[in-house]
Amino acid sequence: MCGIVAYVGHRQAYPIIIKGLKRLEYRGYDSAGIALLNGDLSVYKKKGKVSDLEDSLDPKDLESTIGIGHTRWATHGEPNDLNAHPHYSSNGQLAIIHNGIIENYIALKKELESRGHVFKSQTDSEVFINFIEQIFTDLNCDLEEAVRIALQKVVGAYAIVILDKNAPNQLIAARKGSPMVLGIGDNEFLIASDATPIIEYTKKVVYINDYEIVSIKDGELSIKNINAETTQPYIQELDLRLDAIEKGGFEHFMLKEIFEQPRSIADCLRGRMNAQTGHLVLGGLIEYNNKVMNANRFLFVACGTSWHAALVAEYIFEELTRVPAEVEYASEFRYRNPIVHEGDVIFAISQSGETADTLAAIELAKSKGAMIYGVCNVVGSSIARASHAGSYTHAGPEIGVASTKAFTAQVTVLTMMALLIAEKKGTITAQRFHQLITELENIPAKVERALKSNDYIAELASEYVDSTNALYLGRGVNFPVALEGALKLKEISYIHAEGYPAAEMKHGPIALIDENMPVIFIATRDSGYEKIVSNIQEVKARKGKVIAIVTEGDTLIPTMADHIIEVPDTDELLSPLLNVIPLQLFSYHVAVLRGCNVDQPRNLAKSVTVE
Ligand code: G6P
Question: Which position among 22, 109, 256, 606 bears the catalytic label?
Fold first, then answer.
């Protein structure tokens, strides 16, 4: 969580940092701040959005070619002006921006207080910069060395950038556990939590590794590890277009991303699958092919929407590969003593590739000898790099905090993977394999058709805008879609919603049903259709309001449901890719009508880099 941006070079730093912070606002938006160095080291910070900070400042007063900026998702201390970053050290010489958590900050704070440091905020980050200042003073060394020594003593996660009032052309940065990308331009450098603030200025980037310290002094770059050994930066060329991170005429990123799904699913399939030739290949698998094909068990670890994609995958993997599959919340998995064998293959699913719990789950599974296959959207992300092998989802940048196109891309990659394994293991017939890859190729066009219900769903949303609860029900591979539909609604509209397997309704949720309770059924034609029809009748008998997602041309359910939304017919195993579309649109329109901030819902962050 939290976004950081830093600039040093020949241009004005302020506009670059403000624009960069806006691009990183998906990471947190409780407060924002910048520090600029121009003779004085000046900090400007404010509770609220980056635009609130911007409105309070006059760029004329902000001339400087070096600066740091931060957009915060509060961990220690409530969101207010004082807890906003950057933080000064007690003597005012240093300023820090920090993304992460320093776990031993209480002990450090006590020690520093006994040495006369006075703290203005409740943050661990202010303790961190004072700790560095103390070492800097005690040892009378250079700042880079003081940072290095401090890092040996702090416990926790950090991506930090520090300015020193007495060093007008210097940025010192370091990372452990929180993401950091360095951009190298012509006589200028940028540092950020991801590449989006950088791409306008340079495509040359270095993904900073854990325990590396970056020093930029008078235009010279050096990177050392925590043992003071110089490391060679691996410079990569970014393949990211500016228009991919802009709204492109849509009112919100979320809507843009929902509508991008025909393209993002097609991009995910491109070059990997061809139904005509029967060709299916995932480049990431090649080196680890034997390990995956001979796995005793597939274990999926993920959080949030990615966990729902993993649940969909569990059904598909077991059905096609006949190998046991299990899904774990990364946060639960990492804190018990899970049974993991060398023959297990762990799929780590993550849009951002930075989720702290998923990363920790990977490390735990690795230590027990398992092979890790990462399925990430963000290229070069920490999870992608920590995995033995992997496949990117190629959905393009997802900026809306509520995940949409990443989900369908994850399900697409995982479906291809299951098909590939099933084909190699001989657990699928040639005919069924061909049928499924042909249908998978048709999915982008069918998603396009499902999106045509947008106007109708917007109207429907107006009927439910004042609901206080909602129940989402599905069966089989569409049970996780019910969970995802409920999550979308609660995330962005703050309406309480629950997803349930439809058959479980009788074991509790049925007690909630009355004429005010909307019940959203995923009721497309599949092996559970008749059962779902009975469940709909049970809800109607209790006067619940039924919205049913049905297959085009269904004539039975429209006679019972209050509203129906049609999606094209497809294979049951692929139906989550279509059925989730109206649920995404429904939550979007309800949230817009309720006046909620769809792209930046309260208290949430896109990338949860703290546990
Ligand atoms: C946060 C986001 C969710 C996302 C989850 C997992 O909660 O708001 O949209 O599903 O993190 O993130 P990941 O990047 O690992 O998929």
Answer: 606
Residue 285's pLDDT is 85
Domain range holding 354?
246-428
Please report whether residue 181 resides in a domain: yes
Same domain, 161 and 210: yes
Judge whether 2 counts as a catalytic residue.
yes
- List the beta strands (DSSP E) in 467-544: 469-474, 496-501, 518-522
Distance 479 CA to ligand 1 centre (A): 19
What's residue 283's pLDDT?
Answer: 87
For residues 62 and 207, membership in a common domain is answered with: yes
pLDDT digits (tens, 9 = 90+) for 384-436: 999 999 999 999 889 999 999 999 999 999 999 999 999 999 999 999 999 99
How far is the centre of ligand 1, averaged over its atoms, from the C-alpha of 561 (Å)? 33
The CB of 306 under 6 Å from ligand 1? The reply is yes
- Residue 228's domain is classified under what CATH number? 3.60.20.10
Query: Which of 119, 21, 17 minimizes the C-alpha distance to 76?
Result: 119
Among 592, 587, 604, CA closest to 486: 587
Give pLDDT tens digits for 55-66: 999 888 899 999
Among candidate residues 403, 380, 393, the one with its CA nearest the CA of residue 206? 380
Write down which residue in 240, 266, 281 finishes a domain. Answer: 240
CB atoms within 10 A of CB 557: 21
pLDDT of residue 170: 97
Within the chain, which residues score under 50 in pLDDT?
none
Q: Is 156 exposed, middle or buried (0-12, 13-18, 19+ CB in 10 A)?
A: middle
- Give the CA angle between residues 509, 512, 516 to the nearest 5°: 130
Distance between Cα 492 and ligand 1 center (Å): 14
Find out whether the beta carbon of 579 lies less than 6 Å from any atom of ligand 1.
no
Among 306, 327, 399, the mutation site with the greatest number of ligand 1 atoms within 8 A of its Cβ is: 306
- What lies within 8 Å, CB to CB, of 246 at 6+ separation is none
What pLDDT is recorded for position 258? Answer: 98
Regarding the beta carbon of 310 and ligand 1, being less than 6 Å apart is answered no
